[in-house]
Amino acid sequence: MESLRSILNSPQSANTLLVVSAADLKQYSDQLVAETRRAVEEQHQPVYMTREDVMELLHISNGTFYNFVKAGKLNPVMVGDQKRFIRSEIDEAVRTGRLGKYIHK
Q1: Is the separation of the CB atoms in 77 and 83 below 8 Å?
Q2: Does 96 or 104 have the greater pLDDT score?
Q3: What are the pLDDT digits (tens) for 25-47?
Q4: Which of 23, 32, 34 is nearest to 5 (CA)?
Q5: Is 77 inside any structural domain?
Q6: CA-to-CA distance for 105 and 94, rounded, in angstroms?
Q7: Is residue 19 part of a domain?
């Protein structure tokens, strides 16, 4: 399997004629699908942040942080028995200006 990949990635692959069995092609495509699935799943795993992480990321004080939470601008989720904040939601709040003009993009 790796030899097929190395052949396809080699500079001479444009001038290479390959004879591949259906079983080999199926195995190669299954491997590509599995690798792609893993990569997509890794990208979509939420990154959970603590209060301290969020304050450091946004360069805000403890008071500002709690004001954002109280106003519903930052929404915690429960992870076990602890409150955490999802990084992608924080990024979205910054991008859309939901956190106000004082938060730098």
Answers
A1: yes
A2: 96
A3: 888 888 889 888 888 877 778 89
A4: 32
A5: yes
A6: 6
A7: yes
Is the domain of 38 the same as that of 53? no
Same domain (yes/no): 62, 79: yes
Q: Which amino acid is at 86?
A: I
Q: Same domain, yes or no, for 88 and 52?
A: yes
Helix axes of 87-96 and 51-58: crossing angle, nearest 10 degrees: 30
Same domain membership, residue 62 and residue 29? no
Say what the pLDDT of residue 103 is: 65
**Is a pLDDT exceeding 90 seen at residue 100?**
no
Range of the domain at 23: 2-43
The pTM of the whole model exceeds 0.70: no
Q: In terms of domains, do 39 and 57 share one?
A: no
Give the pLDDT band (50/70/90) at residue 17.
Answer: confident
Burial 62-94 (b: 16+ CB within 10 A, else e): eebbeebbeeeebebeeeeeeebbbeebbeebb
* Number of domains present in the structure of the chain: 2
